[in-house]
């Protein structure tokens, strides 16, 4: 029994890990379906699989490829801005490129990476389920996502080029008149495809979490990552259908002569408004009714990753577990009522209402912050690569959050809207979540997925270069934004002192890019010279670490008893159970479940 | 670093202005001591423009309050993180106490942020009401139309100023008086943004939006479109030139007479009437911006087609 769950190990020294004998260490490709006796292998397995682990990996690999492509677009954009009137790109190319950058990052990387990739792989393992609730729907999600991604990328090859209206596609700039051609149409198609993919994944996540939890895995014993993915799934079901509907109406405007978002012509009939004209504002309302929950669809999964990693490397339980859950729910609820804070400068929204709800989101977010700090408090912190990435997230998200509070105040938003101040803000937030926490999750779960470790030294190079590059890139953008530099400009006046900030920012972007070379090298090294990971190299706490690495086809042959939200920890450390609610600073028995230390080592057969 | 870049030098000391602002005191009251320690007697601008209009000044003071609140709250959080990281780094194999809840702490860090948010919200609403207030009887009002890729300013007496991309138009307005802007777009969304006014507003097709401002000092203030509007979004500049009310009245009268005498010149002004005469006004690609030959015929035609009279 004891060989199933590895004992705690020294960090930084993966070579000293306890190695269960069944883990492959010979350099052959790890057998993802190790216990799968039948079925296709090789490429056919990847094409036909409905296994959540295979689909999750497909999602992650695809989205990381898209992340690298989108990063390259960012570098080209930054190069353009190093001089005020650069001839590197034409205006049209620049507009197309930042549209591609935003669309790839927001629609095709951050979300699918989180809820299609990590969640797909991890959630069933964390709740002791054999697979997702609807495996075929899961496969359909991935193929829709891949199709949508290819469609999006292919738009650069069509006549007239890719869409140039930004990732928000504001009407009426996205109309057939202002943005003719097949590029924008395919952009709409790509989003419709990936939108359905997201909706199906949302259904799957909710179904899995509600119905496939293992015996003993009550709702309030679920890991926070799973909790956050449940809330994310619900938010997906709220937000993405709105986007899809809005896109269909946009398509109708472009091709079927409807005037849902078009007001052109309204004021031209004898100088009087026509009675029946559409509303460009409607697009903004619909888009942001999707778009702001989407921001939290992109954030909550990564909050979940941080909440998994910090306790493990602090050797403590999550501080304020229930507060964390309710904070997640509060963020989700509030996120459906703040969309118009993207529209303060339209002059057509009720400022105090949206301002108040936007400010209020700071409260549950602050609770999360203090819970994270409380988790580390009095812990034994080990600065492994995943831990460093999650600490990097804390710093980045703190900065992005503070400037977000400023932007929730309409007068300050009036002064900074659509300037680089906002660009810096949302990059710090999204980079903090999707990149710092996201790749922290990659470093954290890679051993579980492939049964081999990533190199700590390369990981730390990656982290420190990225951390330094992050601040060099985005801090100057705040300053130049306050000086009045608008976003989405391909050139800018040369006599306003903006150039030096832009050069610094570009240098930072290339440092970030360099850091990501270390990730690729790390993957290659781990593949060429594998260091076996064992089942639980981090002495982690949740259920996914109780099975083999990589897990067998149906995930578990045995489950430890689930009597708290960290069954693997309880099993490995029966003498260090969670201190019951209240005071009592002594190690004691947890949660009144009555299992003694000996009892805790009895495994339940599935 | 930034004070040299933030517009006209302030004559008025900040402290009296600040003490008039109860919202800022609400937002910043608890942290005034820290701010004084940081900055001596006068609050820094924190990188923002002090504001060239009365409305912009209010926004600027709100910005200062938010910035200080951000420094304090963010700073405390940062210190807590750093303390945890350095103090509780792994020193032994001893198992930490497995604490999961501490009710009093949790209530504290729920209630305190709520109070801070309430304070910030009150300050926001007070300033927002000033910034968005419209006077019943403004001294002058302009209709501003944005189009791809330029601006058209229409004055009460029919004077029109039109310019686009390389020939940025200049809006002449009276200093110290309330100026009402009615804003609209002919085609796609645009953003009317004057950095030193600390203000931007979308120009949208389909509906009018309006706002007031009172410029404090004579001067030329650069403006630019901030909302992506297509190919030449980067080049959609304009200027706001604020002059004394008498100079404004003269300019309006002379320009009106000129445009009545030259009905085909709509929107285009000769060099001596072209208000863009201040060398500090930036323009695209080295054009000084006051070139007399400002006539790409398209501009006039656009205006003429829409206003054919």
What key attributes describe this structure?
heterodimer, A: 606 residues, mainly alpha, Cytochrome C Oxidase, Chain A, 2 domains, two-stranded antiparallel sheet, 2 strands, disordered N terminus, B: 309 residues, alpha+beta, Immunoglobulin-like, five-stranded mixed beta sheet, elongated, disordered C terminus
How would you classify the helix and strand content of chain A by structural class? mainly alpha
CATH class of the largest domain in chain A: Mainly Alpha
List the helices and strands of chain B in order. Answer: HHHHHEEEEEEEEEEHH
Q: Which pair of chains forms the biggest interface, and how many residues does each contribute?
A: A-B, 104 and 96 residues
CATH fold node name of the largest domain in chain A: Cytochrome C Oxidase, Chain A
Oligomer: heterodimer
Give the overall pLDDT of chain B as a whole number: 79
User: How many distinct folded domains of chain A?
Assistant: 2
- Strand percent estimate of chain B: 15-25%
Helix amount of chain B, in percent? 25-40%
Order of strands in the sheet with most strands of chain A: 1-2
Amino- and carboxy-terminal Cα gap of chain B: 51 Å
Strand content of chain A: under 5%
Q: Please give the number of β-strands of chain B.
A: 10
- The CATH class assignment of the largest domain in chain B is Mainly Beta
Query: What's the CATH H-level homologous superfamily of the largest domain in chain B?
Result: Cupredoxins -  blue copper proteins
H/E topology pattern of chain A: HHHHHHHHHHHHHHHHEHHE
The gyration radius over C-alpha positions of chain A equals 25 Å
How are the SSEs ordered, and which strands pair?
The complex is a heterodimer of chains A (606) and B (309).
Chain A: H1 42-48, H2 52-80, H3 91-126, H4 135-154, H5 182-211, H6 224-255, H7 280-297, H8 300-314, H9 321-335, H10 351-360, H11 362-376, H12 385-407, H13 410-416, H14 420-450, H15 456-482, H16 499-528, E1 558-559, H17 567-572, H18 597-600, E2 604-605
Antiparallel strand pairs in A: 1-2
Helix pairs in contact in A: 2-3, 2-4, 2-16, 3-4, 3-5, 3-6, 3-14, 4-5, 5-6, 6-7, 6-8, 6-9, 8-11, 8-12, 8-14, 9-11, 12-14, 12-15, 14-15, 15-16
Chain B: H1 14-20, H2 22-28, H3 32-39, H4 54-87, H5 103-132, E1 140-147, E2 150-154, E3 160-164, E4 170-174, E5 178-185, E6 190-194, E7 199-203, E8 209-214, E9 219-225, E10 237-243, H6 245-261, H7 297-307
Parallel strand pairs in B: 1-5, 4-10
Antiparallel strand pairs in B: 1-2, 2-3, 5-8, 6-7, 6-9, 9-10
Helix pairs in contact in B: 2-4, 2-5, 4-5
């Amino acid at each position: 029994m004891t060989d199933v769950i590895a004992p705690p190990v020294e960090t930084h020294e993966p070579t000293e890990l306890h190695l269960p004998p069944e883990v492959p260490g010979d350099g052959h490709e790890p057998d993802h379906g190790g216990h799968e006796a039948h079925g296709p292998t090789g490429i056919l397995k990847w094409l036909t699989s409905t296994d959540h682990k295979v689909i999750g990996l497909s999602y992650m690999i695809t989205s990381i490829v898209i992340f690298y492509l989108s990063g390259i677009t960012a570098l080209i954009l930054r190069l353009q801005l190093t001089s005020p009137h650069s001839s590197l790109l034409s205006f049209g190319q620049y507009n197309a490129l930042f549209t591609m950058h935003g669309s790839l990052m927001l629609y095709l990387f951050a979300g699918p990476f989180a809820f299609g990739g990590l969640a797909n792989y991890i959630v069933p393992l964390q709740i002791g389920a054999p697979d997702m609730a609807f495996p075929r729907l899961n496969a359909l999600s991935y193929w829709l996502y891949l199709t949508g991604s290819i469609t999006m990328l292919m738009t650069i090859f069509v006549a007239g080029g890719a869409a140039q209206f930004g990732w928000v596609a504001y009407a009426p700039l996205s109309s057939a008149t202002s943005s003719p051609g097949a590029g924008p149409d395919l952009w709409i198609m790509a989003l419709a495809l990936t939108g359905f993919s997201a909706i199906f994944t949302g259904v799957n996540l909710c179904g899995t979490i509600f119905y496939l939890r293992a015996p003993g895995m009550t709702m309030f014993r679920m890991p926070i990552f799973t909790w956050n993915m449940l809330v994310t799934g619900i938010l997906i079901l709220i937000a993405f259908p709105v986007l899809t509907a809005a896109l269909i109406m946009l398509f109708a405007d472009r091709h079927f002569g409807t005037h849902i978002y078009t007001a052109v012509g309204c004021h031209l009939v004898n100088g009087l408004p026509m009675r029946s004209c559409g509303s460009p504002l409607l697009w903004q309302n619909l888009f942001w009714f999707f778009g702001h929950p989407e921001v939290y669809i992109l954030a909550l999964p990564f909050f979940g990753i941080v909440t998994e990693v910090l306790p493990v490397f602090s050797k403590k339980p999550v501080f304020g577990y229930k507060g964390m859950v309710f904070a997640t729910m509060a963020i989700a609820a509030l996120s459906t009522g703040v969309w118009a804070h993207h529209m303060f400068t339209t002059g057509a929204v009720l400022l105090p209402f949206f301002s108040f709800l936007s400010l209020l989101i700071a409260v549950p977010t602050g609770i999360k912050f203090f819970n994270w700090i409380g988790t580390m408090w009095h812990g034994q912190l080990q600065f492994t690569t995943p831990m460093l990435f999650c600490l990097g997230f804390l710093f980045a998200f703190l900065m992005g959050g503070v400037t977000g509070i400023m932007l929730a105040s309409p007068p300050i938003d009036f002064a900074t809207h659509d300037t680089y101040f906002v660009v810096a803000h949302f990059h710090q937030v999204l980079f903090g979540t999707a990149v710092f926490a996201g790749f922290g999750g990659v470093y954290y779960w890679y051993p579980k997925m492939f049964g081999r470790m990533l190199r700590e030294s390369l990981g730390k190079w990656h982290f420190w270069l990225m951390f330094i590059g992050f601040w060099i890139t985005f801090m100057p953008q705040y300053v130049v934004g306050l000086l009045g530099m608008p976003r989405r400009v391909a050139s800018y006046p040369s006599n306003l002192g903006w150039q030096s900030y832009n050069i610094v920012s570009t240098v930072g972007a290339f440092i970030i890019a360099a850091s990501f070379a270390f990730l690729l090298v790390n993957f290659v090294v781990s593949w060429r010279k594998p260091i076996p990971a064992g089942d639980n190299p981090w002495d982690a706490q949740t259920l996914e670490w109780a099975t083999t690495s990589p897990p067998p086809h149906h995930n578990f042959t045995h489950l430890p008893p689930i009597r708290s939200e960290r069954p693997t920890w309880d099993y490995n450390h029966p003498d260090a159970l969670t201190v019951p609610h209240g005071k009592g600073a002594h190690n004691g028995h947890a949660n009144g479940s009555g299992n003694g230390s000996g009892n805790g080592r009895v495994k339940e057969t599935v | 670093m930034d004070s040299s870049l933030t517009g006209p030098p302030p004559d008025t000391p900040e402290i009296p202005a600040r003490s008039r602002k109860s919202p800022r005191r609400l937002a910043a009251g608890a942290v005034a001591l820290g701010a004084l320690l940081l900055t001596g007697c006068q609050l820094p601008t924190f990188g923002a423009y002090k504001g060239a209009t009365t409305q912009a000044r209010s926004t600027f003071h709100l910005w200062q309050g938010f910035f200080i609140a951000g420094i304090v709250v963010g700073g405390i959080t940062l210190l807590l993180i750093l303390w945890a990281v350095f103090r509780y780094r792994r020193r032994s194999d001893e198992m930490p106490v497995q604490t999961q809840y501490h009710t009093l702490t949790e209530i504290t860090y729920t209630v305190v942020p709520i109070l801070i948010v309430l304070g910030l919200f009150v300050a926001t609403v007070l300033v927002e009401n000033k910034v968005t207030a419209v006077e019943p009887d403004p001294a002058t009002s302009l209709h501003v139309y944005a189009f791809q890729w330029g601006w058209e300013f229409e004055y009460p007496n029919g004077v029109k100023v039109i310019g686009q991309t390389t020939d940025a138009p200049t809006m002449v307005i009276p200093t110290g008086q309330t100026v009402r802007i009615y804003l609209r777009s002919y085609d796609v969304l645009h953003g009317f943004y004057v950095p030193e006014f600390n203000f931007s507003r979308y120009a949208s097709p389909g509906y009018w939006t309006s706002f007031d401002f009172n410029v404090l000092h004579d001067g030329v203030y650069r403006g630019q479109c901030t909302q992506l509007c297509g190919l030449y979004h980067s080049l959609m500049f304009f200027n706001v030139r604020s002059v004394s009310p008498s100079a404004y009245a003269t300019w309006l009268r002379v320009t009106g007479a000129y445009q009545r005498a030259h009905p085909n010149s709509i929107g285009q002004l000769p060099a001596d009437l072209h208000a863009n005469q201040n060398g500090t006004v930036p323009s695209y690609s080295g054009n000084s911006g006051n070139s007399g030959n400002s006539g790409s015929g398209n501009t006039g035609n656009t205006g003429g087609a829409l206003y054919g009279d």
